[in-house]
């Protein structure tokens, strides 16, 4: 039997404190998770529980207090091209054309090679025809797609997405969820995405990580085992939705007099 592949990301006993107003505040507490190559992890939890901090630690943008974070077999010491990040706001540079935004971090010494790589990302997120547009000329959904293309441009093994769809209207959001799923399927990139939207978390994930309020601890990791769970309104979808909801809300049946 082939030896099981090593996880692409190993987080062991991770703790993080921040110094806020002279006090050490515990933000993340004893986070433990191994993530396999090709998984799609979504993270849900209250505002302020440390989700963005966790992504930044994985990306090497924020250091951690203690524990271990091992990406691709090596302890994380700083940012690297094997891990891309898409921030909540798209952070496109307004003075650069879309293709230059997407190819910003890529080596330009071989111009032809640079153009080809950028064009591949543009096709992937279906922005063909807008290569020379400026960010102000794109809709919100298109800007988010450009930001995703930029995150994928260096062909990272892991893409971290911090509420990438938070600013979109409900219809565009559902459309973008399908796009993200398609990209994940086509490229096989390991995805770790923070979202406040429980439907979205279930629709996209192979596993949903539910976090407690600050200090953020992992309360449950819910494995989505059945592709019917991706059909909104199906019994499986509702089953998983209730499982996540139960962590946040009591049974909220409200008696209403409908004969008013
Ligand atoms: N650089 C920093 N210095 C000090 N405290 C910080 C810093 N970054 C974040 N924090 C604190 O850490 C806590 C967690 O912040 P974080 O941004 O990770 O939360 P979050 O779960 O992403 O919240 P939200 O859902 O609102 O985006 C907050 O209390 C915040 O004030
Ligand atoms: Mg956040």
Secondary-structure map:
Elements: E1 9-20, E2 23-35, E3 40-44, H1 51-59, E4 66-71, E5 74-75, E6 83-86, H2 98-102, H3 111-124, H4 140-152, E7 158-162, H5 170-187, E8 190-194, H6 198-204, E9 207-211, E10 218-223, H7 235-248
Parallel strand pairs: 3-8, 3-9, 6-7, 7-8
Antiparallel strand pairs: 1-2, 1-4, 4-5, 9-10
Helix pairs in contact: 3-4, 6-7
Bound molecules: adenosine-5'-triphosphate (ATP) and magnesium ion.
Residues 18, 20, 27, 45, 47-53, 214 line the site of adenosine-5'-triphosphate.
Describe the structure.
- The protein has 260 residues and is an alpha/beta fold.
- The chain has a domain at 90-154.
- Helices cover 31% and strands 24% of the residues.
- It contains seven helices and ten strands.
- It has helices at residues 51-59, 98-102, 111-124, 140-152, 170-187, 198-204, 235-248, and strands at residues 9-20, 23-35, 40-44, 66-71, 74-75, 83-86, 158-162, 190-194, 207-211, 218-223.
- A six-stranded mixed β-sheet has the order 6-7-8-3-9-10, with helices on both faces. It has a four-stranded antiparallel β-sheet with strand order 2-1-4-5, with helices on one face.
- Helix 5 links the parallel strand 7 and strand 8 (190-194).
- Helix 3 (111-124) packs across helix 4 and helix 6 packs across helix 7 (235-248).
- The radius of gyration is 20 Å and the shape is globular.
- The protein starts with 8 loop residues before the first strand and ends in a 12-residue tail after the last helix.
- The model has no long low-confidence stretch (mean pLDDT 91).
- Residues 51-52, 162 line the site of magnesium ion (MG).
């Amino acid at each position: 039997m082939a030896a099981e592949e090593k996880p692409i990301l190993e987080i062991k006993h991770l703790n993080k404190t921040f110094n806020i107003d002279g006090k050490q505040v515990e933000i993340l507490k004893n986070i433990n998770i191994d993530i396999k190559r090709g998984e799609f992890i979504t993270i849900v939890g209250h505002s302020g529980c440390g989700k963005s901090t966790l992504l930044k630690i994985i990306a090497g943008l924020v250091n951690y207090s203690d524990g271990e974070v091992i990406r691709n077999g090596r302890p994380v010491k700083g940012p690297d091209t094997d891990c891309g990040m898409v921030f909540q706001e798209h952070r496109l540079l307004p003075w650069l054309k879309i293709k230059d935004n997407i190819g910003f971090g890529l080596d330009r010494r071989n111009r032809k090679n640079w153009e080809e790589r950028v064009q591949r990302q543009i096709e992937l997120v279906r922005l063909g025809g807008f290569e020379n547009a400026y960010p102000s000329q794109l809709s919100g959904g298109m800007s988010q797609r450009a930001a995703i293309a930029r995150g994928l441009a260096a062909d990272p093994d892991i893409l971290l997405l911090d509420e990438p769809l938070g600013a979109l209207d409900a219809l565009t959001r559902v459309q973008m969820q399908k796009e993200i799923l398609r990209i994940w399927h086509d490229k096989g990139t390991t995805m770790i995405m923070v979202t406040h939207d429980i439907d979205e978390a279930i629709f996209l994930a192979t596993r949903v990580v539910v976090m407690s309020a600050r200090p953020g601890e992992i309360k449950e990791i819910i494995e989505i085992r059945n592709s019917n769970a991706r059909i909104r309104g199906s019994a499986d979808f509702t089953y998983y939705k209730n499982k996540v909801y139960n962590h946040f809300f009591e049974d909220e049946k409200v008696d209403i007099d409908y004969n008013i």
